[in-house]
Design the sequence.
């Protein structure tokens, strides 16, 4: 028995663990993060491969009438048809594309603005901090949703991307405040003073000493922003404030509501887009939990400490 | 000891006032006042005082983390308060390094030991650029110098995988990386377990001898100052009140505050009898200090003039000095 163990330890084995960097291994081992990633990646693939999964007719795209109105799901139309005879499956698949790209695009713009404004404000202090804090406060009290409604009345029927952009510009301030306060805490820590004594320039202190300590905060803010944009874009489209001819989950819900799907019991017109929104939100939240557990180095090394 | 050797780092009339509050009600906290001290190569100067007495503020000014309100810091004959260019600052940082009090806070939790040690090496060009092997070798040497052996085991560790003593050794190695001439040690052992303090003190002593480094050793612990330092400065409420060689200060304290401090040290032979000096009062609030000696309200030998003007420095034959009217200016 003892002999066997010795032989085993002597042989170098190529395992997944040896191939991955430490943080990624932690991610792979975290069930919450993995389930979230799996669901999210499925949607990303659906979005990327939308033209292959559900080829669109040349004219009319996903909104073209292809069958009888309000047909229940069957072999031909997996998710049934709408009142206009549109294929719900095609709409959901192509809506995935729109909703995810708006969500991730605007979410990324939000987090970049947060990092730039928040960390600059917290690290520089003084007059710069005063001015940037003023800017943040102005954008904090700026009511995002009514503003988008006003803008949608102004720009005639804004598409999902316009809505995403307006959301990005109006809703970065909250995250920036959070990052600013965290920067203030870390800026006064001894390891920042030690880096200064070692002779590190300011930009390196910000990027390599302060920012890595906020990675979980940055990533969770980013994911939160993505969820926020996806939900808000769906909400606005559902309220009919977007372009009703665009193909997104929110627009699908808008048409389902408009066509009294509940009264006509056409559940297949609102369950698929609604479920998609819920699943994407769920997966991103799971990833967020997972990252929270991994990003703290103290929690990271359960063994081998 | 200072007759023929020039001090490598000295301060003259170093003062730091912090301003708090807003434009309407501004309060001035006088953290350090008129501090004069000298650090000599291969010698250890201890700065002893209670918390809040301004010891750390002096160290942070010397490390160029705070800007002095007034006064001069002279390093190798050059007044560095006047030279504030980036290049001059970097040159200074390459010669004067600092060890922080809390080894749990002074190492960035996201970086490995190797990163901590290699950054100063890179910044101050101690390794030829692009030579990864030379950098690695130097990192190993640094770890071996602070007795973290086998060094290969420590190089890939994160701070949270090390004990307090090991972390402080890494922090010492980081300070050592630039081959400094002066190390400012801000209570380097006060956060460590009693059992490993001596090891770290002995390590610093060995480095002092090996590299001829001058130490400014800040502590609130008179016993360790006596053990490690050649000279002790006693600080109270922003003022340095007495300077003497370590033994002299312990055996023959002059300033009443030093006497109070010594009487507070537990002495096994004395048992649990109360100290000869009655301890009364509190450390004053640095925001509203009077004009006189800050120790006057607590002093058993207080005189009238103590409350009006801070006593000047009275120097003795052996080079020690004190700020007290009990020793008239000659």
Sequence:
């Amino acid at each position: 028995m003892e002999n066997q163990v010795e032989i085993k330890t002597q042989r170098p084995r190529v395992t997944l663990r040896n191939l991955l960097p430490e943080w990624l291994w932690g991610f792979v081992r975290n069930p919450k993060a993995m389930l979230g990633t799996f669901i999210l990646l499925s949607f990303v693939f659906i979005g990327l491969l939308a033209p292959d999964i559900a080829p669109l007719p040349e004219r009319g795209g996903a909104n073209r009438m292809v069958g009888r109105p309000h047909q229940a799901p069957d072999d031909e139309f997996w998710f049934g048809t709408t009142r206009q005879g549109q294929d719900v499956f095609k709409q959901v698949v192509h809506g995935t594309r729109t909703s995810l790209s708006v969500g991730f695009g605007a979410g990324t713009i939000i987090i970049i603005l947060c990092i730039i404004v928040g960390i600059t404000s917290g690290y520089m202090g003084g007059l710069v901090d005063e001015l940037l804090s003023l800017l943040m406060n102005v954008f904090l009290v700026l009511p995002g949703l009514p503003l988008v409604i006003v803008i949608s009345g102004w720009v005639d029927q804004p598409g999902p991307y316009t809505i995403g952009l307006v959301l990005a510009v109006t809703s970065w301030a909250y995250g920036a405040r959070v990052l600013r306060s965290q920067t203030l805490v870390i800026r006064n820590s001894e390891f920042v003073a030690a880096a200064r004594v070692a002779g590190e320039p300011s930009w390196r202190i910000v990027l390599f000493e302060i920012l890595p300590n906020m990675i979980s905060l940055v990533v969770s803010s980013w994911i939160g922003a993505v969820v926020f944009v996806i939900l808000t874009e769906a909400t606005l489209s559902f309220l009919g404030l977007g372009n009703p001819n665009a193909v997104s989950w929110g627009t699908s819900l808008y048409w389902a509501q408009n066509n009294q799907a509940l009264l006509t019991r056409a559940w297949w017109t609102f369950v698929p887009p609604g479920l998609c929104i819920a699943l994407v939100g769920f997966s991103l939240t799971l990833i967020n939990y997972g990252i929270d557990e991994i990003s703290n180095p103290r929690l990271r090394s359960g063994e081998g400490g | 000891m200072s007759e023929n050797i020039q001090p490598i780092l000295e301060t003259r009339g170093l003062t730091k006032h912090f301003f708090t509050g807003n434009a309407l009600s501004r309060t001035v906290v006088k953290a350090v006042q008129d501090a004069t001290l000298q650090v000599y190569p291969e010698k250890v100067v201890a700065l002893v005082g209670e918390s809040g007495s301004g010891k750390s503020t002096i160290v942070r000014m010397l490390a160029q983390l705070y800007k002095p309100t007034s006064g001069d810091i002279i390093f190798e004959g050059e007044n560095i308060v006047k030279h504030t260019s980036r290049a001059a600052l970097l040159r200074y940082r390459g010669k004067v390094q600092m060890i922080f009090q809390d080894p749990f806070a002074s190492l960035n939790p996201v970086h490995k030991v190797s990163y901590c040690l290699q950054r100063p090496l890179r910044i101050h060009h101690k390794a030829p650029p692009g030579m990864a092997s030379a950098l690695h070798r130097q990192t190993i040497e640094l770890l071996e110098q602070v007795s973290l052996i086998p060094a290969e085991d420590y190089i890939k560790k994160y701070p949270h995988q090390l004990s307090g003593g090991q972390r402080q050794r890494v922090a010492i190695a980081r300070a050592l990386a630039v081959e400094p001439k002066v190390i400012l040690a801000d209570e380097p052992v006060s956060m460590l377990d009693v059992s490993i303090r001596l090891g770290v003190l002995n390590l610093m002593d060995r480095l002092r001898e090996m590299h001829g480094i001058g130490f400014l050793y800040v502590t609130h612990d008179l016993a360790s100052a006596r053990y490690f330092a050649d000279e002790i400065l006693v600080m109270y409420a922003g003022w340095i009140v007495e300077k003497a060689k370590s033994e002299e200060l312990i055996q023959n304290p002059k300033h009443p505050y030093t006497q109070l401090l010594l009487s507070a040290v537990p002495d096994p032979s004395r048992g649990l009898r109360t100290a000869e000096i009655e301890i009364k009062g509190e450390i004053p609030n640095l925001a509203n200090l009077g004009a006189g000696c800050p120790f006057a309200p607590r002093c058993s030998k207080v005189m009238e003039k103590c409350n009006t003007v801070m006593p000047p420095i009275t120097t003795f034959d052996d080079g020690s000095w004190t700020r007290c009217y009990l020793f008239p200016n000659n």
Observations:
- The interface with chain A takes residues 60, 63-65, 89-90, 93-94, 97-98, 100-102, 105-111, 119-120, 123-124, 158, 160-161, 171, 174, 178 of chain B (CB under 8 Å).
- The radius of gyration of chain B is 21 Å.
